[in-house]
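I would like you to help me understand the sequence and structure tokens below and explain how sequence relates to structure.
___
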Amino acid sequence: MTVSRSDDNSIAHTVRCISDHIREACVSCGRNPADVRFMAVTKTVDAARVNEAIDAGITLLGENKAQELCAKYEDYHKSGVEIHFIGHLQTNKVRQIIDKVTMVQSLDSIPLAEELQRQCEKHQKHLDCLVEVNIGEEQTKSGILPELLPRFLEQMTNFDRIHVRGMMAIPPICEDIVQKEHYFSSMYQLFIDIGEKKIDNINMDFLSMGMSDDYSIAIKHGSNLVRIGSALFGRRNYPNKI
């Protein structure tokens, strides 16, 4: 179930439509709609349009690029709003975003964890993170391979300012719905299995998966945080590489 955003519809109207579809997807699989968070992904979207979404009730933003986040941050209506970093995060960009986000959803290496720890110590803060899992084992994508996940999480217990709160995934693009469901189902099983291990400092509270074209399928398979960009703001425009 997806939403095709018409230019005739306001962002507020689209927020309501997507929220309704999320509720319908939850009800159809016996889940409580209150358990699924709706993230607005703001890549290439100017601050004024993001603020329209915030004013319409959006309380969670997903940022992909450190430079873009820094450029728009001061213009956001930030009261009551959380900002998560969801894109690939280079270690040399951590210092730019550490004071602006409440969660990093793309934790995928020990060097990144070390830099997050260092910057958290510097800023006297603690940071929630999700481990990005390369569920499709694609060579061109970042993320921890499923078979390496247990060892990675064991290493994460050594970082006292980083708190792993769950996992994030971007499954491979595929037209076959059965195959797409397989990826989501595999992620959910990992989520459950890791949670049952009760590893110190590792909590499986959030399973972030599902985007504009497949969030209803992701909800069916246990996602409790869906990341929606183009269905909310329209097709992205890439005038410059940021």
Notes: The longest strand covers residues 162-169. The domain at 11-233 is CATH 3.20.20.10 (TIM Barrel).
